TrEMBL record:
Residues 1-27 form the signal peptide. CDD domains: Peptidase_S66. The gene is ykfA_2. Belongs to the peptidase S66 family. Residues 42-157 form the LD-carboxypeptidase N-terminal domain. Keywords: Carboxypeptidase, Hydrolase, Protease, Serine protease, Signal. Residues 219-333 form the LD-carboxypeptidase C-terminal domain. Its EC number is 3.4.16.-. One of its GO terms (molecular function) is carboxypeptidase activity. This is Putative murein peptide carboxypeptidase. The keyword Nucleotide-binding does not apply. Pfam families: Peptidase_S66 (PF02016), Peptidase_S66C (PF17676).
Length: 368
């Protein structure tokens, strides 16, 4: 009989919570990468899906205009079906970018698919020894979580160059503001706050506001990303650690029942047991065109649930703060508010769910 099983249930539950809190408190704070400044070198890489040359060229031109030296491998636009080359090549490219002493930041061009295939081929010792600004979202979530698990330095969940800086209109002003404010060391010290580090995310006045699912205030380091990737890494060496952390999630093109299934996986794996707070960001899904006849389509609609209903099932009675509709994640074509806030993974934040506020409490990068 185990020590816990021999104890009264209430006592063992309290002990478990204490152990979780102690574990989170003892976790070594992540290293902060050096903040970016004009003149620094940014390496563009392709660790996931193939890149669009026109968009990436525009992104590189815009970065150059801002004063950065942009470095690209000769075969950046290689293609192997839905991958940007074979697994070993993509892993070597990523490792080399971190190993290069002249590179200050590593910018994956886009997500798509492929990051999980090469996680066991990356030299994580090299990456850990050379913490640098690292950005991206979607499939890049796998790399954020791998760095959190193997390297313990802050990374940045951000728009990717191909669909941000490389888009025709560039980043939305909201997304651009928090992208650069997170990456540039000098941007995170506010004279208005008496020199305090960090900032509060402030939406445009006419943008949809986040909503409160469970009120409360909590503080913890950020961790998370695309739900599909978070779920796919369960049971691997790169599995997410949510205890005492502020978990944030988003996804795109996943029906409510699939989001339900992935949240169930996280729940069964203990990942929804003791986060400090949860931030549910943008979840978007459009029903496919009806090819089965109106009667069949109508019947299917009766059997579905909304995202709000799914979230209520998993978080409606949560003992921690939960907000929904935070402005981060994939946009939808034609949608007015495709905001994508940068969230520094590993940095300390405060979530006030009742007030629908998220505040970064520290500078996520270190001064030069």
């Amino acid at each position: 009989m185990s020590f816990l099983s021999s104890m009264p249930r209430r006592t063992s539950f309290v002990l478990l919570i204490c152990l979780v809190a102690t574990s989170a408190a003892r976790a070594e704070p992540p290293t902060k990468p050096k903040g970016l400044k004009p003149g620094d070198t940014i390496a563009l890489v392709a660790p996931c899906g193939p890149l669009n040359e026109e968009r990436m060229t525009l992104a590189a031109e815009r970065l150059t205009a801002l004063g950065y030296d942009v470095r690209t491998p000769d075969d950046l636009f290689r293609r192997r079906g839905y991958l940007a080359g074979d697994d070993q090549r993509r892993a070597d490219e990523l490792t080399s970018a971190f190993a290069d002493p002249e590179v200050d930041a590593v910018f994956p061009g886009t997500g798509g698919y492929g990051a999980t295939r090469m996680l066991d081929l990356v030299d994580w010792d090299v990456v850990a020894a050379n913490p640098k600004v690292f950005i991206g979202f979607s499939d890049v979530t796998a790399l954020h979580l791998a760095i959190a698990a193997k390297c313990n330095f802050i990374t940045f969940h951000t728009p990717t160059p191909q669909y941000g800086l490389g888009s025709k209109d560039g980043l939305h002003p909201f997304s651009e503001r928090y992208f650069w404010r997170s990456l540039l060391a000098a941007e995170n010290v506010s004279a208005e706050d008496g020199g305090a580090e960090g900032f509060e995310y402030e939406l445009p006045a006419d943008a949809p506001s986040p909503r409160t699912l469970r009120p409360g205030v909590a503080t913890g380091p950020l961790i998370g990303g695309n739900l599909t990737l978070v779920a796919s890494l369960m049971g691997t060496p790169y599995e997410i650690d949510t205890d005492g952390r502020v978990l944030f999630l988003e996804d795109v093109s996943e029906a409510p029942y699939r989001v339900d299934r992935m949240l169930s996986q996280l729940k069964l794996g203990g990942k929804l047991r003791a986060p400090a707070a949860v931030i549910l960001c943008r979840f978007t899904y459009r029903e496919p065109d009806n090819e089965e006849g109106d009667g069949v389509a109508d019947e299917k609609k009766k059997r579905t649930q909304s995202f709000d209903e799914v979230f209520a099932d998993y978080f409606g009675d949560a003992p921690y703060p939960v907000i929904t509709d935070f402005p981060m994640g994939h946009g939808v074509k034609g949608q007015k508010w495709s905001l994508n806030a940068t969230l520094p993974e590993g940095a300390l934040v405060e979530v006030d769910a009742g007030a629908k506020r998220v505040r970064l409490l520290e500078n996520p990068v270190k001064p030069d």
